[in-house]
Amino acid sequence: MMKLAVLAALAGSASAFAPAANGRGSTSLAEKSKAVPFLPNPSNLDGYVGANGFDPLGISNYFPTDYLVESELKHGRICQLAWLGYVAVDLGARIYPLPESMQGVTSATAHDPAVAFGSLGNMFVWMAFFEMAGWIGISQMLQGSGRAPGDFGFGKQFLEGKSEAQINEMKLKEVTHCRAAMLAFAGVVTQSVLYDKGFPYF
């Protein structure tokens, strides 16, 4: 009896952290996807800027679409900054003098010296802090607060006085740049390692 009570408590606590349903329909069998015309339209994506019905694996049937959009925007924004930082380091940009152990490193070779120096441990602490703070907004969004995916209150002045069509155009530009940045960062890292040369890495 005690074992059943413990299992029930564990199951209940686990379900508290499960993503909430997004309240939309699932995959529509009649309508076809715009992006992949031979597949059904994933109707969970309807109404999201830049979606175009692209979900060949049906991921939006298992996770809230707001959560997926939040994830895409977050990773895209990080990759935009990461591409710029990766290239800037290889072009010689420095914010402050580097310690002797970090002299002459490139973006591709900086990992081990940075671990030895301790700067990556420092970075981990800051990243953990930002992730915990960001999860508060995500958790509230998944519970129906009305918060838009990726909205942390920054840059909203650019949307003031604009029509809904103009706002959607800005959102489309952002998600397009986010997707391009994710591909670009993967490409720049791969090319810099394969060719072992500085920018432009060939």
Architecture overview:
Chlorophyll a binds at residues 60, 72, 75, 173-174, 179, 191. It is found in: Plastid, Chloroplast. Chlorophyll b binds at residues 77, 142. Helices cover 51% and strands 4% of the residues. It is mainly alpha-helical and 202 residues long. The protein folds into 2 domains: 24-62, no CATH class; 65-202. Strand 1 and strand 2 (40-42) form a beta hairpin.
Number of helices: 5
The number of strands is 2
Could you say which structural class the secondary elements and strand pairing correspond to?
mainly alpha
Domain tally? 2
Name the beta content range: under 5%
- Global outline: globular
Largest β-sheet summary: 2 strands, antiparallel
What's the arrangement of strands in the largest beta sheet? 1-2
Arithmetic mean pLDDT? 84
Distance between the termini: 67 Å
The percentage helix is 40-55%
Q: Give the topology string: H per helix, E per strand.
A: HEEHHHH
Unreliable sequence segments: 1-21
The rounded Rg comes to: 22 Å
Protein traits:
mainly alpha; two-stranded antiparallel sheet; 5 helices; 2 strands; disordered N terminus; light-harvesting polypeptide; chloroplast
Short summary:
The protein has 202 residues and is mainly alpha-helical. The protein has helices at 2-16, 65-90, 111-117, 119-142, 164-195; strands at 27-32, 40-42.
